[in-house]
């Protein structure tokens, strides 16, 4: 990637970001009404979307990930980017041919009978071409786009600047999410997707994982033709799960396909190991025999043993309506903040589970969704960064299932699959029975007694935590006061230097003034963030 193109790219993205920041500051300073804010976020979303399509590269993937964060970003902004597709014009065949010959060290004719020069798929990072090996096997050849490594590194530098600035200075509603951690996780995922040798390992992992499952089909790979920039896989024909007209003639009913989809992905979400983090309709097909075909393993995530155990317990708690246990699982997973009232969360979960989906037909869905988002933002709930891609995987598959079987309830479809999964894990049904016993009123009474006896210990831990928070708050407050005093001193020094015509005093005072103002703004922002963790009575 030429230096001039890099600078142009940086200028376009940074100028867009800082114009957005200035607009937000201006609207906040003018205290604009809610309707004006809606228009602003819609305008920002439109500009953001247009810039992404023009510059392509990593930015498209960033937009896709942001579109899943309706819990953090304004609805008007989300609406503009929620249907972003990672499709860009393919590269010139001459450039692709050079990459293939360089990676293989030979001419294409040595390995292939034919290769179609028109890409069958083209995304921001790679392109896919169809070819036929010397033995007649049809394959898919995935090739990284020319200069993509340079483009991605440039985009990461730009994104790093924007996130640092937004995290320290911009009053964007970020909830409780750590932008730095999000950036780190995004970088890890994209760098993994850039290395096709890692995708090859992931494909082989999934192929081994589902080797005894007849309902799943994973493409075979050709390691001898695969490198970090090229991946050669078996070509598999299938039907998109969103193409309902082509699914209807199949011998397998759509509802059964939906259950098979749950059977394939449920273990990925509940068991420790690797999960498919990008299961959009283009990456999940179904064969004429009704087998679920999984493609494109470039974006994958990991689940630890501890998180897997808590997720399993959470599902069991919902099925047995043991909401106190569900709240405990949410605490363990990091979805609830320490100050969350467990009793309120229990009641909300009970109301949510008992909600009748048929009522949705009688209400404004958009208004309901906005109200739900507002409620989530008002609660002490956070989405840990390590679960962003897991959540994306779940939501995408859930959306496909609802299209396949719109009349069926998701819980009804998933319950038999979950129970079968429990039995296959070797867990006896006594575990399920124990969960049910825990949900009964008599058990809740003993649980309340135990909770009461444990209260002094929890209170002591809470006091210790509050003291640490108070100390940190005091440090920030003192630093803010010191910066304010230094700025006054600098102002006085500037006046003295101007009156006495001493340029040295004037320059030193100006420097002190500038540094102290910047420090004052930084500590003011830190105090503002820290106030979220302070008790309400201490804010008054």
Automatic annotation (TrEMBL):
One of its GO terms (molecular function) is ATP binding. InterPro entries: ABC1_dom, Kinase-like_dom_sf, Prot_kinase_dom, UbiB_kinase. CDD domains: ABC1_ADCK3-like. It comes from the Bacteria. The chain crosses the membrane at residues 12-29, 504-523. Residues 114-540 form the Protein kinase domain. Keywords: Membrane, Transmembrane, Transmembrane helix. Pfam families: ABC1. The keyword Transmembrane helix applies. Belongs to the protein kinase superfamily. ADCK protein kinase family. This is ABC transporter. The lineage of its organism: Bacteria, Bacillati, Bacillota, Bacilli, Bacillales.
